[in-house]
Amino acid sequence: MTATVLVTGGTGYVAGWCVTRLLEQGYQVRTTVRGPGREDAVRAAAAAGLGADGYEAARDRLGFAVADLTSDAGWDRAVEGCGYVLHVASPLGGDAPKDPDALIGPARDGALRVLRAAVDAGVERVVMTSACAAASPPLGAPDSVSDETRWTDTADPTLTAYRKSKAVAEQAAWQFMRERDAERRLVTVLPGAVFGPLLHHSQRGSAQIVERLLGGMPGTARIGFEVVDVRDLADLHVRAMTAPEAAGQRFIGAGEFLWMSELADVLRDRLGVAAAKVPTRTLPDTAVRLLARVTPGLRALTPYLGRKHLHVPDKAERVLGWRTRPAADTLADCARSLAEHPLPVAG
What we know:
By secondary structure, the protein is of the alpha/beta class. The protein has a domain at 4-195 and 227-254 and 309-324: NAD(P)-binding Rossmann-like Domain (Rossmann fold), CATH 3.40.50. Helices cover 41% and strands 15% of the residues. The protein contains 13 helices and twelve strands. The strands form three sheets. It has a seven-stranded parallel β-sheet with strand order 3-2-1-4-5-7-10, with helices on both faces. α5 (101-120) packs parallel to α6.
């Protein structure tokens, strides 16, 4: 009998591709939604990723459970009968909320709800999406190269709410699994900046960075990204789910480092006239800091101006045979997909 896999947050960017990859490999998939009414969008996204036979697979082997990370309700039922769990969902919220605990608490508590239900149900393995932000040095440190042995200091006052939420949630997850003598049933995946094609117009995620570049920003900031393709990231989750060698391990899923100006260069080179509005100049750091005073999303990024903290995926490559495609291909596919999946016009 084919195992059933629970994927949390099936409406999300990364989760949508995880659902697609699992269906492609023949699994029965159940995914959580926060409330009824989102099933059709998730099925349509999975079908788009699967191609010609997608609608049949999305109809016959994709099921749903209503569960929210902020509530205990529904999680026992969601994991019932599942052999594996991919905990991909993250709480909603910007990178700089007025109250950081509004993001940090739900991320930690939501992960623990999923893990508690999974362990109680006898799930064989949980793969949890963390972030490279959970394995990074303090911002004031010199440029660095990190691997899975590094742990972010959650007491670091320079951490943004999002980055702290990822570090706190992952550390709490490992602590919980140690207390339940189930550490080898957990694997964490730590992605870099996730780009690549969309499956649905609502699944934008960090692809919004490419969208803003295409829309005509006044210039690029000296901010860098460790580009990883969303399709390859989904593949890493599925590999980590079943590989015996992955038990109890962390895996970095990051690719090439590109400055924002290099992202812009790739878009102009690959898209031609479609990238006519992509900026050609780099803004001085002082100008970016001034803009950040009136742009909350940008304000959260200013501490990272000029920083180059790299994360190496050597362990995922060596243990799991994982690879990520060239960043230029990922960014071009992302840009073309944004054009194919415009946001609906309000009206």
